[in-house]
Amino acid sequence: MKIIRRMAITASKLLSKKLKARIKSLLNYGGLNIDVNYYIGLALLLGIIFGLVAFMYDLSFREVNLATILISIGIFSLILGIFILFPYFKSEQRAKKVDERLPDFLNLMAANIRSGMTAISAMHGAAKEDFGVLSEEVENAVSASMGSESYEDILSLLLKRINSRILERIVKLLITGMKTGGDLATLVEGAAEEVTQIRVMQGELITSVRANMLFIVLIIIAGLPFLLTVSIFFVETIQNLQTQVGPSELGGGVSISDITPEFLVTMSYIIIIATSLFASVLVGAVVDSSYIQGLKYFVPLMIISIIIFLIASNVVPNVIGTLNI
Predict the structure, then answer these.
(1) Last residue of a domain, one of 199, 214, 236
(2) Cα–Cα distance measured from residue 315 to residue 298, given in angstroms and rounded to the nearest whole number
């Protein structure tokens, strides 16, 4: 285990400090207490190993060509991408949980302030209730900054562990209120109400576009595979006619001998994968307000589309054949 760790840390030196700093932030936001050098180095090692395995496996069946190299690079990139996206999705999941509990937390904090507690004590007292990730991170931030007793330091530490735009906005508001000497309890209650309004507006927006989004996704995952199947069947039919009667007797110089059904099947899979990726990004932008978040829908959409394509490949020829077209 120590050897693997040492190799991973050595491999991490291949990456820039800027990239490692970004990944370290993602690990912090995701609540993953892992050494960034070990984490990203392990990703590189696994990517290289699986890429080489795929290269050697493909090499046992055929000579080295562009496809072999692209497959190996693709597997390496896929593994590296998984290691980078995992903490990102984890951080977004934590941020979503924090946003859900934030209004109740702020209201309890305001009540503690009105009862005579200081801002730090009020925050710490509110964190003792079960607010999940928010309670855990507030307690950690308070414990880490006990020496300074600075309200601003605690909030700053909180932002380093939770990647929430709503929380960041509220923290800036509270820090400004503390510096200007306003009524903190009223300010915190106002912040809680603002968070509630933001979440209500987000819910209404998602509801208003959900029907249109469902229609678009339905066309992509169901309509597109059927259209591709019809195109392949059309090419097969024309080629069968050319074989039976000859291209000259079809008239109009019809000739699609350069386009084979096998080529169209390959292109269909590429189109389905690309379209599923586009659809997932679109859904993520609307539902989660994040293009990257949409990638979690990519695999399910792709699998469903491919299954429909395979079913349509068997159904469409039989249906059209019964119509005697």
Answers:
(1) 199
(2) 26
Q: Is the pLDDT of residue 292 over 70?
A: yes
Q: Please check whether residue 23 is in contact with residue 38, taking contact to mean a CB–CB distance below 8 angstroms.
A: no
pLDDT score of 153 more than 80: no
Q: How many domains does the chain have?
A: 3
Q: Is the dihedral of CA 248, 253, 254, 259 positive or negative?
A: positive
Q: CA-CA distance, 294 to 284, in Å (whole number)?
A: 3
Q: C-alpha 18: how far from its chain's center?
A: 22
The domain boundary, picked from 66, 87, 108, lies at: 87
Judge if 233 and 149 occupy the same domain: no
Query: CA torsion angle for 15, 19, 20, 23 (degrees, to 10)?
Result: -130
DSSP line for 109-164: HHHHHHTT--HHHHHHHHHTS--THHHHHHHHHHHHTTTTT-HHHHHHHHHHH---
Of 53-62, 229-238, 309-318, the least confident:
53-62
Answer yes or no: do 183 and 122 share one domain.
Answer: yes
Local structure of 67: helix, strand or coil: helix
Per-residue tokens: 127: 């964190």
Range of the domain at 41: 2-87
Report how far Cα 300 is from the mean position of its chain's Cα atoms. 13
3-state secondary structure of 64: coil
What pLDDT, on a 0 to 100 scale, did the predictor assign at position 39? 92
Residues 219 and 306 in one domain: yes
Q: 291: which 2 tokens?
A: 């293009």
Q: Residues 112, 221: one domain?
A: no
pTM for the whole structure: 0.71
Spatial separation of the C-alpha atoms in residues 111 and 105, rounded to whole Å:
10
Co-location of 217 and 299 in the same domain: yes
**8 A C-beta contact, residue 72 and residue 52:** yes
Number of H helices, E strands in the chain: 12, 0
pLDDT tens track for 72-92: 888 888 898 889 888 988 888
Length of the chain equals 325
Q: Are residues 109 and 194 in the same domain?
A: yes
